[in-house]
Amino acid sequence: MRNFQQELTIFTAKGATGTGLAHKVEDFQHVLLTLSSASNANFTIKFQASNSDTCPDFSSAQSVTNRWDYIQVKDLQSGSAIGGDTGVAFAGTDDVRLFEVNSSGQTWICATITARSAGTVTLTAKPFSNG
Questions:
Q1: Per-residue DSSP letters for 1-41?
Q2: 79: which residues sit within 8 A by CB, 6+ positions away?
């Protein structure tokens, strides 16, 4: 039987660079991400995770006391892996993209828009386990 959590919002129509809302996902093996854009969006987004007991500040630099990293995601359209330090770039063409995160062992998940010149970004997460 699968264990699902309701959809979690990280960004809603965000029109600037910055970090979204972090969510606790430690009870789930996987997280499905839905990334959508509007208004000829041009941005790069990077996905983040942490296994710290307390939520790190994903908007601040990584450190011994602020432990997080950019993580790889799997593009569910092509099956290709997208490196965490690379992220996903939209270049003026709006789209809806689906990704999977292997979140086994991760406690927190988040995302940061690192570059943006146009449009808005919405990102949701759907945690689940196969158990």
A1: -EEE---EEEEEEE-SSEE---EE-TT-SEEEEEEEEEEEE
A2: none
Whether residue 60 is contained in a domain is answered as: no
Q: Rounded to an integer, what distance in angstroms lies between the CA atom of residue 52 and that of residue 44?
A: 25
Q: Which residue has the tokens 């970004």?
A: 121
The one-letter amino acid at 76: L
Is 120 a member of any domain? yes
Give the three-state DSSP class for 40.
Answer: strand
- What pTM did the predictor assign? 0.93
Which domain CATH number covers 81? Answer: 2.60.120
Contact 129, 3 (CB under 8 A): yes
CA distances from 77 to 34, 74, 80, 97 (A): 12, 9, 8, 8
Domain count for the chain: 1
* 61 found inside a domain: no
* Diameter over CA atoms, the chain: 43
Residue 56's SS3 state is: coil
Give the Cα-Cα-Cα angle 8, 52, 56 (nearest 5 degrees).
65
80-110 pLDDT, tens per residue?
999 999 999 999 889 999 999 978 789 999 9
